Amino acid sequence: MDLGITGKRALVCAGSKGLGRGCAEALAAAGVELVLNARSSEALEATAEYIRTTYGVPVTAIAADVTTDAGRQAILLAAGRLDILVNNAGGPPPGNWREWHHDDFLAAFEANAYSAIAFMKETVPAMCERGWGRVVNITSVSVKQPIGVLGLSNTARAALTGFVAGIARDVASQGVAINNLLPGLHATDRTIGLDSFEASMTKESVEQVRARRQAGIPAARYGTAAEFGATCAFMCSQHAAFMIGQNVLLDGGAFNSTL
After folding, report:
1. pTM for the whole thing?
2. For the chain, how many helices (H) and strands (E)?
3. Are 156 and 92 in contact (CB under 8 A)?
4. Which of 46, 108, 201, 237 registers the highest number of CB atoms within 10 A of its CB?
5. Alpha carbons within 13 A on the beta-carbon side of 144
6. 3-state SS of the chain: helix, strand, coil percent to 5?
7. Strand 84-87 to strand 59-63: parallel, antiparallel, or no bridges (unpaired)?
């Protein structure tokens, strides 16, 4: 399927690894020019060069921290005009709610809610003026089904979801489609880390934890970054203009619900 976005320009945050990289590669395959961000310059430059060579699209790499005003401004300065925004940031650490304090919640909010809100505030008005734009916020299945050890993530991502529910309807008539993409368990460093954390709590091996968690997914496996990226690219396409303010769940059927 031709996604109709060849020549568009996209910012993909946290795009050097995992789900962000999956999104970046899928957009590059559709002919989209990329501005790629991550905190680590080494992994970022390697990914940027791979995408340039493999897909033949321009890639601007900018190492910066999206959780800071200075980092966001550096990214926006390097990005220039944007047609597509993919918001993404690493999730907060797991733990017990009894041990979290004020600063822990603020840090989670900065990373997994406010950074995306700030980028939207800076980029969406110009998209509205031009009459076309796409925003995909990578959030989590925890928006629909809270994860006990990820209370910081549950809280911050729910806040972003509430913000998007309002802004998406406000700008839809101006050709801008804003939606959220909710990953379940995918074969990424984040999931490996969570498997290891659970293994340390249950005294199982990491392999036992992984097998048990995969058995709880109707698809009987973890998802891949490539699958996730393909879904993101469709949500950024010309074909998704009527998809407004939705929370698209990609979890292999793990969330059991009629609606």
Report:
1. 0.92
2. 9, 7
3. yes
4. 108
5. 21
6. 55, 15, 30
7. unpaired
Compute the Cα dihedral for 187, 107, 140, 214 and give only its sign: positive
Beta bridge partners of 117: none
Tokens of 13: 């945050």
Instruction: Write out the two tokens for 11.
Output: 């910012």
Question: What architecture does CATH give domain 9-184+224-249?
Answer: 3-Layer(aba) Sandwich (3.40)
Query: Model confidence over 135-151: pLDDT tens digits?
Result: 999 999 989 988 888 88
What integer pLDDT is reported at residue 199 of this predicted model? 82
List the structure tokens of 26: 């899928």
Tens digits of residue pLDDT in 211-252: 888 888 999 999 999 999 999 999 999 999 999 999 999 999
Residue by residue, DSSP assigns 142-193 as: GGTS--GGGHHHHHHHHHHHHHHHHHHHHHGGGTEEEEEEEE-SBSSHHHHH
Which of 33, 149, 19 minimizes the C-alpha distance to 81? Answer: 33
Residue spans per domain, the chain: 9-184+224-249, 186-222
- Chain-centre distance for alpha carbon 52: 21
Q: Which two tokens stand for residue 233?
A: 């690219």
Give the distance from CA 228 to its chain's centroid: 10
Q: What is the pLDDT of residues 183-197, one digit of tens each?
A: 999 988 777 777 888
State the pLDDT at residue 33: 98
Give the span between the Cα atoms of 141 and 126, in whole angstroms. 30
pLDDT of residue 208: 87
Residues 78 and 123: their CA atoms lie apart, in Å, by 13
Q: How crowded is residue 169: how many other Cβ atoms within 10 Å of its Cβ?
A: 12
How long, in residues, is the chain?
259
